[in-house]
Each structure stands twice: as C-alpha cells, then as structure tokens.
Amino acid sequence: MTRTIPPMPDSLSVLCVEPERAPKRGNWPTKSDAEHTYDSLLALVEKCRSDVLVLFTSPWDDFSYGVFVRTGAELEDDWSVLSLSASGRLPKTEATTEALDLVADAGRFVDALTHAAGGREAYGQAKQLWLPRAVADAEALLLVLQFVAPLLEQEEAARIVLVGNAHVQVTLDRKRGVRLDPLSVRFANSRGDALARKFFRPAAPCDWRPPLDGKRAAARRNELRKKGDPLGELLAELEEEAGGSALTRGSAQSRADAVFDDEVTAEQLIEALGARANAGRRFESARESMYMRLARRFPGAATAPLLAALPTESPKVRAVILEALSWIDHRDAARPVVNEFLDGSPGPLRDRLGTLVWRQRAGVELLVRRLVAAWKAEPELERRILALVREEYLSIERAWIADAPDELARVLAPHLK
User: What is the pLDDT, as a whole number, of residue 183?
Assistant: First the structure.
C-alpha cells in the first residue's frame, strides 16, 4: 500500500461503508470515539476479507475526507479535493475557518447565523465574524449574509460551508451581495470518487442575492413573521441595529471605526458623531465612546464638537460629554463642567463632576474666581466651593485671589501654590 497522506492524529468519524454488511457498522468508529485514529481504522480495513470502501473524516479537520479502497489483496487510500461542481476548478478559498473582517461590530449577526445553522453557534468578536461550519437552512444563511456582504472590509470574500450534506462556496461581495456555488468532493481513485458522489448530495447553485436595503428587508421580514419563522424577528433586530434602514458600508464604517480603529483621526470621529447613521437612542453607547475617545486622543479638536453636542443629547449622554470635557484643560471646556457643578441639580452627576475639577487648572481657576465673587453674598455656594477645595486638595494660584477680601485670602492661604 502507498500512503498519500500522513496519519491523522485525532479521532475519526466513518461517513459511509460499502457494502454496509461487510464489516458490521458496529465495529466502526463514531465521531465521539477517540480510540480510533487513521492507523487504527486502517488496521480494521486490513482485516477485512472482502472488498470494501470506507469514507471517513475527522471532526477537527474542516472538509477533509479520506477513503480506503480494498479490492482483493490490494488496499489503497486517497485524500479528497474540493472543486467547483460546474467547472471542476478549485474553490476560491481553502481557509474554511478564517474570520470575515467587517467594518462593523460582528456580534449583531451571531444570533441570526446560529438560527441558520440549526443551533450550531456562530461566533463574532469585535469586527470579525466566523461563519458556522455547517448550516441547516441555505435560505436563512443567504438572508443573513445579504446584511453582512456590504460590511466587508475587503471587496470580496469566500468561505466553504456545509449545507445539509452538500458543500458550497459562499462568496460575499460588497456591491453584488452573496451567492452559493456547489462544490464536489473528488478523489483520484475512481471507486472512492464514485462513493463520494453517491454520499454527498449536490447543492443547488444560487446566483447573486443583492444586499438588503430597508424596503427589501422589511418585506422579507414581514413575510417570515407571517409564516411564524423566528428569522423574521432576528432580521428585525438587524434592522433596528441599522437604525431602521440598510446597514451600509458608510454608516457602519463611521460607527465601528470610530470606536475600534486605533488609527482613527479626529476628523473621522467628528464625522462619525455627526452621521445620521449614528443618531438616535439605540446608538447612544457608541456615541458616548466616541465623545470620550475624541476628548482623550484629540483634546485640541474636541472642545467645539463636544460643546455643540451638549444641548442636543439625552441626560445620560450629556453626563459623559461633561466628563469628557473635564479632560480638556481649556477655559471653554472647563466652563460647562464648573457651571454644572455649581448650578446643576443636586445628584450623582454634580457629585461626580466635583471629583473631576482637579483635572483642569482652568476649571479650578473658574471655581476660585466664582468663590471670590460669591464671598458673603451666596453662603451656600461659598460653603460648597470651600468644601471641594479642602476635600480635593486643590492648589490655588495667587493671581486668582488678587481681588479677594482679606478674610477669604486667609482661608485659602494653605492652598496657595
């Protein structure tokens, strides 16, 4: 016997034996039987006294199949090649386990892909999406990938997926959408090749399905809902993530890159914050991340857009903007932080901002000058500012209290720089 492949180190699963009666199926390894390796299965075949064909695979090796062909005293093995059924050419990709790189958060697609896979969980992390190895419903897979395709980082990507008992190459294209091309499991050995053709059901080809826009998605979702298909609700969730419209490359790029990309620029962050695709309550958390990132990485460019956003955002996001402004040591940035602490309603936000004043020398100056103006005229305000100066150990410059009454100057003397 001439070996054409190295011994497989992991457990094997027998897919098909012909004829089935020789030997008994009970003697063959199952997917969970870790005692059988390539060599142990070879030993079983060598003991057979009659002709036999054995098609097998490893559960840990994506779409790799082997075959033992026993004819009289001759025993041959062979290793499969996947090829496009229509042309016989090799598929565009052999990387079946690599992630798809997206320009958006991949996690939103996991539930829908898991549904398409019949419960086999898909996986998404940050901007990378791993397709399930096998899916139960090709139509469900196509629908979900019509959302995914326009969010590809590259122009086109292809992966191999098992649909039922048929292999397909899934091709995603940012502009054209998604298509399925059937693949064949081929062996150089003619008998092994005939067994593979008999065992693996051929898939039906599917030409390009265009990216889903809002109207197409809504119509398909409603149709599925009427049928009671859970995918209808999952598609509705994807539409909500998209702000009720199609997930376009531009909208996702502006949101995801602004949050995750280490090389994002101030201009890109500002553009993302102003994009319609990132507006509304559902994207508040994303905007919060962008506001904070803009202030921390680009303080020189952040003040104006943060101040412009303050009156337009909800109280929750407004609190984040104020905290972001506290990282910018400029009078314009410090003024709303100090004003909120001094004049805002009592509560957690006011208390929180009091603990952040030390970050801005400009803010401390505004605070002290307000204290000088309020001395003896606003006792409650005077008390709060003095308490903050003591509790936060704020240092004060002499120039700030040049016009202060002598009594106040004495009170503040221990804090002079």
Answer: 93
Task: Using the Cα atoms of residue 323, residue 325, residue 326 and residue 327 in order, give the sign of their dihedral.
Answer: positive
Q: Can you give the pTM of this predicted structure? A: 0.54
Mean pLDDT of the chain: 80
Cβ contacts of 342 within 8 Å, gap of 6 or more: 367, 370, 381, 384, 385
**pLDDT tens column, 153-202:** 889 999 999 888 889 999 999 889 999 999 999 999 999 999 999 899 88
Instruction: Report yes or no: 63 and 94 within 8 Å, Cβ to Cβ.
Output: no
* Cα(6)–Cα(4) distance, integer angstroms: 7
Q: Is the model's pLDDT at 48 over the cut of 50?
A: yes
Provide the 3-class DSSP secondary structure of residue 184: strand
Whole-angstrom Cα distance, residue 363 to residue 395?
A: 12
Alpha carbon distance, N-terminus to C-terminus of the chain: 89
290: Cβ contacts below 8 Å, ≥ 6 apart = 258, 259, 269, 272, 273, 278
Cα 127 to Cα 99, 109, 218: the distances in Å are: 9, 11, 25
Give percent of the chain with pLDDT exceeding 70. 81
